[in-house]
Amino acid sequence: MSLPEPLFDRIPASEGRLRVISYNVHLGEALIDERDGGSSSMSKAFHERKMMWDVDILGLQELCSDEGGWQLDYFDTLMRSFGGPSYSAFALSDPVGKMMCGRVEAIFSRHPIVDSGAIELPNVRQPRSAVWADIDVPSANGTGTVRIRVYNAHLENRPEKDHLTWEEGRLRQTRVILEHMAAWRATNPDAPVILLGDLNSLSTYWDVWSREESIHEIERQGLQPTLKKYNRTLTLTPHQVDWIFFKGLKQRRSQVEHVWLSDHFPVVADFALPTAAVLEPALVEGP
């Protein structure tokens, strides 16, 4: 599958933009269609939509890792098509068995991933996971890089164990991620952090505008949603289940891109590049 030529000039480095996308790709069905000669083209969408092109950090949910990992390779090639290298980290939803097609949560980055890991979430219906990555992004003031922590999660949509309500099940999973984040922030209190993913925050079918408790719990930890007001992110129902939260960064813009290649729409957020801390020289005592 060849990638189309981009329609936009590269954003100047002086603009200092960090573009982040969260996208549930629904088991790569559009990729399969594209591979088999159909009309769907994920690569075309990323190259022809101005807010999706030249992405820096791409968080994917429901990506398949079986059949030799060709879907992982597809997005590695896509990231490289914007110029420069591609780094990735992923977590299997079920590291013991095989969740559907070896389903993973994945983080792709154009900037170096220096550390990463997986978080096994409480099983409230079926195995679920989150992946985290530490990424060195260029600093806005040109003094090197700034390390940011990115979490990508896919929470349960229909919890049913331990007599939990759907909302209670997702809240239990959310708290495990937030506890992991709190332990890391204890030694990295000033580092920027991003939490994104398909959080399946369905709330109630009859009140799609209200935010469920898991979303409020994230906000109580000081993370802000890039989408301040209600935005539909599912293609078949009017629910908002896909999010990008952040702390320690300055948001420039955020929107939902209405790309019909999955049962979810991608969420895009642009941030200003962070500024590296300038360390004061140590005072030297005289003799």
Question: Explain this structure to me?
Answer:
This protein is an alpha+beta fold. The chain has five helices and twelve strands. The strands form two sheets. A six-stranded mixed beta sheet has the order 3-4-2-1-12-11, covered by helices on one side. Strands 5-6-7-8-10-9 form a six-stranded mixed beta sheet, covered by helices on one side. Strand 7, helix 4 (about 165-185) and strand 8 form a beta-alpha-beta unit. Helix 4 packs parallel to helix 5. The longest helix has 20 residues, at about 165-185. The N and C termini lie far apart (about 70 Å). The relative contact order is 0.16. Mean pLDDT is about 90; it is low at about 5-15 and about 280-285.
